[in-house]
Amino acid sequence: MQFLLIIIIIVLAVLSLVQRVVPWIFYSRFRENKRLENLFELFAISAFTSLFVYNVQNVSFISIAALSVALIVALKTKNLSLTIVTAILVYSISLLF
Amino acid sequence: MGGYNKYFSISFSYIPAGIAFGAFAIALRIPAPYAIMLSLLVFSGAVQSAFLGFWVAGIEPFSIILTAFLLNLRHTFYGAHIESQRKNVTISDIFKIGPFLTDEAYALAVSDSGMSNNAIFALSIYGYINWASATVLGVFLASIVPLHYLDILLMALPALFMGLLVPKLKGNYAIITVASAGAISIIGRILDFPSFFIIVPIMLGVIAGATFKKLSEGGK
């Protein structure tokens, strides 16, 4: 079992490395394609949205309230660190009541 | 976004998530050395979380590797997007930054096109150290802190992506992209599709946004 675990971890490590580096090297050879830049911007917006949805681990009134307050902070300040701290703080304080 | 702010953002998101991963791995009775080895070698919150799921359901090598491959598909465009914003990326930069490029490092890099390649590399390495250290801390904390308290830490990641998304919401095509990707992601979660389904809302969001942009430009 332990041998299998080590093999799986090594395969996952190689896969993560290859999937991060190889497509980039491939793109690098054809980087003159300007039209792709707009698509990449859309890709970022789409990826951030999906990653946001998939990273909400606990859907509850408290978590929605914490993220709503953090959203207001993000809209007002555009400060990323403050947004994250607000979400954690509001969620922690809400759990006390 | 200021330089220090980026480092704080990385710490505020990686440390809570890393602690949570380490603690949950121990709670699921994964031996501590393997939990730490996963963070050191794989360095992917999504793949590592999927590993925890498979650990609970029973380790089946083919399924876990296929899941990791599909989960990592979103990385396909990360490096390319970073390079499209910068004209001086060398093959050596790709080999330096690429192995440490995560969702968060990518998001921060493309949010500031003026960020140099060395700065991206430093930020990525900083993230790696944060992630590995936090996993070790989580492994330790699992024995002294009740797990439900660690749930609090999991609020950091959605807040990070929300904070990165807000400045990009300019123009109707961005709203259409967010609405499409968001709606399909929510449907995927409600229907309990596997986590690698995430590539579907990402790509459909791009198609919806691009189509809307093309139609609206064609109508002018």
Description:
The complex is a heterodimer of chains A (97) and B (220). Chain A has 97 residues and is mostly helical. Chain A has helices at 2-28, 36-55, 61-77, 80-96. Chain A has two domains: 1-32; 41-97, no CATH class. The radius of gyration of chain A is 20 Å and the shape is flat. In chain B, 73% of the residues lie in helices and 0% in strands. Chain B has helices at residues 3-27, 32-41, 45-57, 61-72, 78-85, 91-97, 103-110, 117-141, 147-150, 156-165, 172-190, 199-218. Classes of the chains: A mainly alpha (97), B mainly alpha (220).
Radius of gyration of chain A: 20 Å
Give the oligomeric state: heterodimer
- Helix amount of chain B: over 70%
Radius of gyration of chain B: 18 Å
SSE-based structural type of chain A: mainly alpha
Q: How many structurally independent domains of chain A? A: 2
Low-confidence stretches of chain B: none
Q: Using CB atoms under 8 Å apart, which protein chain pair has the greatest interface?
A: A-B, 65 and 87 residues
Cα-to-Cα separation, first versus last residue of chain A: 45 Å
Quote the average pLDDT of chain A: 88
What portion of residues of chain B belong to β-strands?
under 5%
Largest sheet of chain B: none
Query: Percent range for helical residues of chain A?
Result: over 70%
Number of strands of chain B: 0
N/C terminus separation of chain B? 34 Å
Question: How many DSSP-defined strands of chain A?
Answer: 0
Class derived from helix and strand content of chain B:
mainly alpha
Continuous helix count of chain B: 12
Number of domains of chain B: 2
Largest sheet of chain A: none
Keywords:
heterodimer; A: 97 residues; mainly alpha; 2 domains; 4 helices; 0% strand; flat; B: 220 residues; 12 helices; globular
